[in-house]
Amino acid sequence: MLGGQAACLKGVGTTINIKDQTVTEFATRPRLPAQDFDLPTWLRIAAASAATALFALCTYAFIRWMLGFAPATPWVRDIALATHLVTVIPAIPLGTYVILSRKGGARHKLLGKVWLTLMFVTAIATIFIRNFNDGQLSWIHLFTLLTFVAVPQAIISARQGRIEAHKKHLRNFFIGALVVAGLTAFTPGRTMWQWAFGDPAIANPSHS
Description:
Layout: E1 6-11, E2 14-19, E3 22-27, H1 41-66, H2 79-100, H3 106-127, H4 142-159, H5 163-184, H6 191-197
């Protein structure tokens, strides 16, 4: 109704107020379209299988150590190594979910931040773990360098709106710094290898 009277017409995402023949339209923020999975099915299955195998192996090794079926590893009390283990192990299933799940939502962003934080903290801790090369940095620390480069790249590309670059950085980071580095943790002589396959009769195994 016009002439001093007011009417309100409501539509989807739009409110139109009519008063004294003046029309004002307020448009609400449009909803973002649903994000689909960005990896082909076969690649998602391969990544999930590798991450699941790695996490299962870590869980098996940890249980074996807790039950006393692994060699004594007193160096695990070292704060750097302990920090590394408690951050990198949960990062495996979390990173897998972030990489393989639907993108763009609030949950994806939150879990992505938690995952990258865990990976950055574990990378800092590895700087102080130098048992593998007589107290010096070794080839294992290349994964530390990879983390220090990839995490800022992923954050910057996301904030700049370069989503494809963001996805590429995180996929490469997931494969290199988590899956490949995780599997190398089970090379002979390292802590996870001793927990998973070591003989408890060995009193003082080498460690890293």
